[in-house]
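Notebook entry, structure prediction.
Reason for the run: the old model in the group folder had no record of what sequence produced it. Starting over properly, with the input documented here first.
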Amino acid sequence: MKFRTISRRPTSVGLAIYAAADSRGRVKRIQAGSSYPRTALRRVVYALLGIAVVMIVGVVGFREIEGMNLVNAIYFESMLATGQGPPFPLNTDTGKIFASVMAFVSVGSVITTLVFTLAPIFGVIWREALDMGEAEARKIEEGLTPKSDRKENGDDS
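New structure, fully documented this time:
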């Protein structure tokens, strides 16, 4: 069966959706020319780089301000970044203020990473589910239409 392209519509996540018609004029939807994996990979890399920068700033800050060794600084910052709070009390007021700021920045970067990496995937799944629901609704509507009405409209199925 040969198809001819009748329209091309890019989407926000990098998929090019082609609308094509067969020889009888029936419209089919075909997804082709996907650049989503490259876009998704770029999003993941930027998001992880953001978390890495926040972790490095936090570790260096806790080492300089509180005098922590490397392992304790990494452990402390990772606990802040995951939203679990400080694992042990800090000694200086400057360290406490720095920990408060890093807690907001760290949790924000983790949430942003999740949103940037997972939102496009959920968007594609949501659109596909809506398309499937619309197709099912059309099938139900066709089943409710009397055959005499379908023959008058040129649909002889």
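Summary: The first strand starts at residue 4 and ends at 10.
The old model has been moved to the deprecated folder.
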